[in-house]
Design a protein that fits this description.
It contains 11 helices and 9 strands. It is an alpha/beta fold. The strands form 3 sheets. It has a 5-stranded mixed β-sheet. It has a two-stranded antiparallel ribbon with strand order 6-9. A two-stranded antiparallel ribbon has the order 7-8. Helix 6 packs across helix 11.
Length: 326
């Protein structure tokens, strides 16, 4: 039930799309996903709060993600501070736990509420990725990002309708040039690199984004209203986006994160009304990375970042940027 939320056909279509309409491969993917959920007790993950609150705040301050509003079509808009996320204030398991909790909260709470509000099935979201601050030091957590990406690829396929990249520095442009050919066509069509903070392009009326089954998506309609723009898109010019700035949807104090965290604590009290919540991360078995689209892409990004580093004659050694195994 937590996989399809009552939209069985849409769920099957998502898995078919993810495997290029190959029924045998899509069936295997779905079975593997269900096994992953059972093995890792994913149905219970929303009753496992990250405690104490100070630890959860540290996770939020270093894994920058939040929800800023809804698109004009009613899709939740998730903002991601890709360039300024440091993943250095907790163990990798806490970051994976938090990521999966946000996925599950989106699928079990946010999307059903949006479907009710807009009176139509809403089963996907929009993501706006802020690349401000992207540096070569991203190499130090590329393995964790690959694992998180693989969890999404293998267990939450086709849940994102569009990816908008904003505030992209040179280092992103160099990586994007080599990564773009590796993406499947259906994924490539979803990614749009916008100029500057992306505000003008997200607010202006779009006449065409891409074609799907012979009809245009978002014809004559702007993508979102100003109120739903992530905070890093609202400023004039590029440059972003500390999580501490007023109105940041990355902050634990933002209504989305307050609602999410309170929901998890409430579910925890229902599941274990007597026992106090114990500190400790919710360990999730790592996916088989070879099966995920993001693995080859991560290797390519790593290679390109090394080229940039060597080409610029930077003093920091490659060994210092080696991918961590933890």
């Amino acid at each position: 039930m937590n996989v399809h939320q009552g939209y069985l056909t849409e769920t099957l279509v998502r898995f078919l799309k993810a495997r290029e309409w190959n029924v045998t491969k899509a069936h295997k993917m779905l079975v593997d996903c269900l096994n992953w959920r059972v093995t890792n007790e994913i149905d219970n993950i929303l009753s496992k709060p990250i405690v104490p609150t100070e630890l959860y705040r540290a996770v939020r301050d270093s894994q920058l993600i939040g929800m800023s509003g809804y698109s004009k079509e009613g899709l939740p808009v998730f903002a991601i501070g890709a360039g300024l996320s440091t993943f250095d204030k907790a163990s990798a398991h806490y970051y994976m736990q938090s990521h999966i909790q946000i996925n599950e909260y989106r699928d079990r709470v946010v999307l059903p509420a949006a479907s009710k509000k807009y009176k139509q099935p809403i089963t996907t979201c929009v993501k706006v990725l802020d690349m401000t601050g992207l540096k070569l030091s991203a190499l130090s957590h590329i393995k964790l990002l690959t694992i998180i990406s693989s969890i999404d690829d293998l267990n939450y396929p086709e849940k994102t309708n569009a990816y908008y990249i904003v505030n992209a520095p040179y280092i992103f442009s160099a990586c994007w040039k080599v990564v773009k050919p590796l993406l499947q066509e259906r994924t490539r069509r979803k990614v749009q690199v916008l100029s500057g903070s992306g505000k003008d392009e997200l607010l202006k009326r779009r006449h065409k984004i891409w074609k799907r089954k012979n009809h245009d998506m978002n014809v004559g309609q702007k993508i979102m209203d100003f109120e739903s723009l992530p905070h890093f898109c609202k400023r004039e010019g590029s440059g972003s986006s500390g999580h501490s700035e007023d109105g940041s949807c990355f902050s634990l104090d933002h209504p989305f994160h307050q609602q999410l965290y309170n929901y998890i604590k409430q579910q925890s009290s229902v599941a274990e009304p007597v026992e106090p919540v114990k500190q400790g991360s919710f360990h999730v078995k790592l996916p088989e990375l070879a099966d995920a689209e993001g693995t080859e892409i991560a290797k390519t990004i790593e290679s390109e970042l090394h080229k940039i580093e060597n080409g610029n004659g930077l003093s920091k050694s490659v060994n210092a940027l080696r991918i961590n195994n933890s």
